Amino acid sequence: MSTTGTTDHEAAGPWGARDGREAAGRLLRAATRSGAHLVAEAAALVQGWAVLADPIAGAVYSTPASAAADGVHAAAAPQEHPYCVQLPAAGAILVLAPAPTTPAEHTGHVAATTAALLEVRGQRAAELRGEQMRLHTTLIRLLLAGHTSVVTETLGRNTATATETPGRDTTATTGTGTGTGTGTGSLCGNRLTHVTVYRLAGADIPAAHQVLWRAVRPSLDPYADACTLLGRLDGELVVAELHHGGDDGRVLRLVSRVSERHRLLAGMAGPLPLAEMPTAHSGAAAARHSATPDRRIVPADAVGSSRLAPLLPTVPYARWAQSVLRPLAPAHRHLLLVWLRTGSKPRAAAALGLSAGTVRARIRELARLLGADLEDATAQAHLLLALRAPGPDEGGNAALPPGPPGPDRLEALPDGLLDTEAVRSWAYGLVGGLEPHLRIALACWLRHHARTAPAAAELHVHRTTLTSWLGRCAEHLAQNLADATVRAELHLALRATRNGPDDPAALPRRGGRTYRRL
Predict the structure, then answer these.
(1) Tens-digit pLDDT profile for residues 389-438
(2) Dist CA 94 CA 97 (whole Å)
(3) Which residues on adjacent β-strands are paired with residue 460?
(4) Rounded distance, CA 142 to CA 138, Å?
(5) DSSP element (H, E) containing 388
(6) What is the number of alpha carbons within 13 Å of residue 366 lying toward its C-beta?
(7) All residues at 6 or more sequence positions from 210 whose CB lies less than 8 Å from its CB, including other chains
(8) Which candidate, 245, 213, 224, places its Cα nearest to that of 182?
(9) Does 64 score more than 60 pLDDT?
(10) DSSP H helical segments within 145-265, as ranges?
(11) Torsion-angle region of residue 401: left (phi > 0), alpha (psi -120 to 50) or beta?
């Protein structure tokens, strides 16, 4: 017979309803603090370890931290971990590994209660997510407008609020958790000096935004030296990681996974000082235009990187570039570089946040300053080559010997710049094996700025035929012809290896509009 206030079920066996109520109370109190405290309390109750594993982010919460890898592996391959209890929770998997002496009923009760509380926290976070996303987008726009101090002060205040407010997870204010796990207001206000920017485009941006939003939430090992902002601007997903100059690659790995999963193309730029956020933003867009399904995320410093530039004689190359670019301010050079890397004025306008008409007007003015026809394919290739040249403080070019009197011209390279054995070897290695008709077609297409219709009309072949030939060129050259910087190098390589004019009139033919191979 049971005593007063105690049922037979409670008295019989090592675990009963009283234990269940006590465990539920402890878990509920932990849930009012944060998801991390909730998972830590669950681990303590089962006298083992607990991990909340996300398919993109990996271990969201882990107690102890050393159990994170085991928890992720158990969530991915449950059959290999039969001793673990696994339950879906808030879009992730809760994994509990109890001690051998912990009753199975107790473990099951703790797992079910923890999963339910994580779902409640997830629903609450979803209710706040729209407001948080709008805040992130606003902060990104402020950074692009140059209001860096306003952003860092806002992040500092929000971080302090999240840290000091009882019952609120530190991710509820910034939505990222990076830099909010154990920090204070001064953490984000004073230590965020640099930014790395990612720009993603594709058909599945809304879903990718939700997934990435969840993926950048913190674990028990806080990333106290960074804050991540996510926003959708003009149909793109923009990720801005603010840090103190060192990028640990965590956000890059997450962006790479999301890009693969949702078939997005992405560009990244940085780390750069916060004041150069607009430069990083446009550089990331230029890099994205070089991304392909085989390489979905491209760094900005890889766009326009040339195998040709290191082969050029340093002194005449740098002297010519400095002379040609002398009339241009740094902002002018950046605009031209983005235009040449993206391959079109509308794309450059989108990358720079300007109207297409403004970009066209500025390029016309810069053409006047340079005294060159910037619509000419050769002039564009030479301009990109000049913009790639090492600056006055790079490569020992601080004091170059004086060149010939008068300014150098963009259309004419210095004598001997491309006429070296190293350059000829590079050029023949790149385009030397092309068949004559493919070489002529490629050269004509490049002169027409990669526009198929006018090139086909000049070649007197059908557009489908030219498209087929260009596909064969890309396959033979193992180059991405959609990349504007690749096209500029091919143009220079064709000119360096030209024995005669690559004239469409010299296209090998055999009656009518067909051709014959030589």
Answers:
(1) 776 544 444 444 544 444 567 777 777 777 788 888 888 888 888 888 88
(2) 10
(3) none
(4) 6
(5) helix 377-388
(6) 26
(7) none
(8) 224
(9) yes
(10) 148-164, 171-174, 185-191, 205-215, 250-262
(11) beta
Distances (CA, A) of 418 to 310, 337, 397, 479: 12, 22, 20, 21
Contacts with 177 (C-beta within 8 Å, 6 or more apart), sequence order: 170, 171, 216, 217, 218, 222, 223
Burial class (CB in 10 A: 0-12, 13-18, 19+), 290: buried
Place of tokens 């794309």: 347
Yes or no: say if 274 and 227 are a contact pair by the CB < 8 Å rule.
no
The residue written with tokens 């006429």 in the block is 419
- Taking alpha carbons only, the member of 29, 34, 18, 33 closest to residue 109 is 18
DSSP sequence for 100-145: TTS-HHHHHHHHHHHHHHHHHHHHHHHHHHHHHHHHHHHHHHHHHT
Q: Name the residue type at position 135.
A: L
Q: Tokens representing 38?
A: 């909730």
- Given the DSSP bridges, would you call strands 265-273 and 297-299 parallel, antiparallel or unpaired? parallel
Please give the DSSP secondary-structure letter assigned to residue 507.
S
Tokens found for residue 249: 């690659």
Residue 381's SS3 state is helix
CB-based contacts of 425: which residues, under 8 Å, 6+ apart? none
Say yes or no to pLDDT of 443 above 50.
yes
CB 469 within 8 A of CB 441: yes
3-state helix vs strand vs coil in the chain, percent to 5: 55, 10, 35
Which two structure tokens, joined as six digits, stand for 156?
């500092």
> Distance from first CA to last CA of the chain, Å, rounded?
105
Amino acid at 154: T
Half-sphere exposure of 86 (CA within 13 A, CB side): 20
Here the tokens at position 42 are 């669950």
Query: What's the CA dihedral at 294, 298, 302, 303 to 10 degrees?
Result: 90
d(CA 296, CA 292): 5
Of 314-323, 350-359, 410-419, least confident by mean pLDDT is 410-419
